[in-house]
Amino acid sequence: MAPKRKAQTQEVAAEDGFELELEEAALSDQETYDKVRNQFDAVALSKRARAERGTDAASFMFKKCDQWDSNLKPDHMNRPLWIDDAGRIILESFSPIFDEAQDFLINIAEPQSRVSRMHEYSLTTHSLFAAVSVGHSTKEIMQRLEKYSKTPLSPTLCKFIEGSTSSFGKAKIVLKKTLSYIESDDPTILQRLLRDPQIAQCRADTTDGLIQEAAPQIGVMAIPGTKLAAGAKQVTQTTEPDQNPDNPQNVQNPGDMIAALREDDEDEEVAQVHSFQINKADRENVIKRCLAIGLPLTEEYDFNNDDVNPNLEIDLQPHAQIRYYQEKALSKMFSNSRARSGIIVLPCGAGKTLVGITAACGVKKSALVLCTSAMSAVQWRAEFLKWSNISPDDIAVFTAENKQAFPRQAGIIISTYTMITGSKTRSYDSEKVMKFITEREWGLLIADEVHVVPANIFKKVTYNIASHAKLGLTATLLREDDKIEDLNFLIGPKLYEANWQELSEQGHIARVQCAEVWCQMTPEFYSEWLKPSTVQKRAMLSIMNPRKFQACEFLINYHEARGDKIIVFSDNVYALEKYARKLKKAYIYGGTPQAERLRILENFQHNEAINTIFLSKIGDTSLDLPEATCLIQISSHYGSRRQEAQRLGRILRAKRRNDEGFNAFFYSLVSKDTDEMYYSSKRQAFLVDQGYAFKVITRLEGIEQQPTLSFRTPQERRELLLEVSLANESELGEERIAGDLFGSKFASKGGKAKRAGARRTAGTLSDLSGGQDMAYIETNKSRNKELKKKGVQNNFLRKMQTSHSNLKKANK
Ligand SMILES: Nc1ncnc2c1ncn2[C@@H]1O[C@H](COP(=O)(O)OP(=O)(O)OP(=O)(O)O)[C@@H](O)[C@H]1O
């Protein structure tokens, strides 16, 4: 071996223990030496790479970060979290303690993306408020993050967590006789708020100083972080079986202890609450401002101790078994025996309605439910009657067709956002019901599909309706207009957000295969598309692309042969009609008469010969068709992520979802090299973040072998092009539906949709899914009595009641 080569080898190999092996190899032939040398280089390279990347399974996926590289805890392999200074959290879903960490993170942070191996969360001021409001203390949040984190929490992050959580719960917003007050047991907090000019100008009362009154007994269960809450905590602790007679706490009964706590307290103000009234219209501004100056307001309703508003006789039916994630979500709302305002996020078809109904059964006071359409209102009523024992007389629907209120002191009204906030002159009957609604206090306001409600509409709702607690329900906490933050102010923090993939693995929603099918434009359509033209015309050429038509026809044939029931969605009514007529399938759009809609939907559900229907965007939401197992989207609303998720929701509830090996299918047909490609990927962003993988299909296997597909000859394609070219501009636009809150302007940025030309009026949506034909389950009085005698039937409500009576006992 040459001395130079030997020296080099010794130098580099020494530190790796390769020295001997290389030396031996160097003595043999060149080939053996090169082999060993290559092995050595590979090891050295991977060692260097590991040193750069970190030694665990995932860190190499991230950019070099000094904070992480230099501070890794020795046992970081066993910890599942990466947290940076800005509160961005990466959770390894393959960690053995993933479930535990996920359960915790969902309470304190906002899920951003939950794909299969990595989940991403963000710690935000809102998420931390929500965390404290559901009972996590600052200390606990930091301790548990420290436990799961691979690196020590940075001082910047700790400061942020402390800053966001420590001032929470010092003041709250409460409702008294339909008026809003800011209340605190510490007058200095309110004085501090009133020194702020923006808050001061929202004050409505003219009291000199603050309004002062005796604190209600409920003070001992007060908001986290206050002295009284600490008292309540101790009370709860003493109810646990600690028999040690040396423990001084066991000498007193809990009631005495509260009294003692109060007597011991030198500060007499504890028994007092202070408040000032604010203008109804300024509610949102005050909430926002309080947050900005670091004193966020809480909104909780102590319904158990509300003796002013009459109780409503309502309980869940014994057959209603709420699922674990529904219970988890509700327990965030009801911990502490109070109803906390906030938003619950569950995937489409996961049962938000039952969550709302259970909440109403928990509060047992008058409730107002707001939906996006009259059809949903009718469905909500039917669901209330199905899942609860409420008397049908006590539950009314207030829509354009039904203008009812309830006859007794307490009840439920289900209405739509448009009915409550509409600016049009109301009929006499509507005016009467509106007066009924606005002049009373509501225990609970349930806001369905809350993410689509424009902020100004929801402001009007909170202005018009005096409700103690608000529950927002949604599947996708996203809007294209970035106004989602407003919901935090108008309703409350997000209380719970379920994981789509987890629910689908457990069979609560269907497993779905998603695919984007790329369809080449035919030459004649593409050369027309390339010419300068209007947005509508180009969009129409992409939708009517004969290859897309063939792909749709092929997929329908394929899935019908498999026994699937197929819904084809087209936002564009011109295309909807053309496709459906050519393929001899039934279709429904806004203008389809009611009787025909019902007939089509019934046939789709029960007739084995009708396996495909075409729907315009009126079928995007609230349509409960559990028979559907396959969706094909031929035209959609630009880049709306919400529409994509909601359409997917139509098959997540598939009846057959628990059949072995069952998969539902979701296809988006996209004309290649057109705007559709861009919008399609934008639309998928939300679902991809929920862990759905979109396969791109560039060629449908077997499509060439189908001789019967439409538009096979150039002659047919030219005729189609001529038809599309001659179509009236106004026919090509997007469907507009009266009273549709999911309308264009909320669904896409850039206002392109506003240019849409066609205006087709749906009249009423109320009948689309056969709402009127739903059989209401009549619950007679004797059955109610029987249920009452038996007490609360549902486990969850029973748990709530037990915890409340424990607290009551403790307070006595
Ligand atoms: N705990 C439960 N037990 C049995 N069935 C349930 C339960 N929860 C929900 N369901 C059923 O699941 C289906 C979907 O529920 P629901 O319509 O409330 O979903 P959703 O979340 O509101 O969906 P979308 O957002 O699409 O409107 C309904 O048929 C409902 O009866």
UniProtKB/TrEMBL annotation:
Enzyme Commission code(s) on record: 5.6.2.4
Domain Helicase ATP-binding per the UniProt entry, residue ranges: 333-495
GO molecular function term, any single one: ATP binding
Top-level division of the source organism's lineage: Eukaryota
Signal peptide location: none
Catalytic activity field: ATP + H2O = ADP + phosphate + H(+); Couples ATP hydrolysis with the unwinding of duplex DNA by translocating in the 3'-5' direction
Gene3D superfamilies: P-loop containing nucleotide triphosphate hydrolases
One BP annotation, GO: nucleotide-excision repair
Principal localisation: nucleus
Keyword Hydrolase: yes
Localisation per UniProt entry: Nucleus
A Pfam family it matches: Helicase_C_3
Helicase C-terminal domain boundaries: 550-704
Keywords tagged on the record: ATP-binding, DNA damage, DNA repair, DNA-binding, Helicase, Hydrolase, Isomerase, Nucleotide-binding, Nucleus
InterPro entries reported for this sequence: ATP-dep_DNA_Helicase (IPR050615), ERCC3_RAD25_C (IPR032438), Helicase/UvrB_N (IPR006935), Helicase_ATP-bd (IPR014001), Helicase_C-like (IPR001650), P-loop_NTPase (IPR027417), XPB/Ssl2 (IPR001161), XPB/Ssl2_N (IPR032830)
Stretches with biased composition (Low complexity): 241-254
Presence of the UniProt keyword Transmembrane helix in the record: no
GO cellular component: nucleotide-excision repair factor 3 complex; transcription factor TFIIH holo complex; transcription preinitiation complex
Disordered as annotated region, ranges: 231-254
NCBIfam families registered for this protein in UniProt: rad25
Similarity comment: family membership: Belongs to the helicase family. RAD25/XPB subfamily.
Name the record gives this protein: DNA 3'-5' helicase
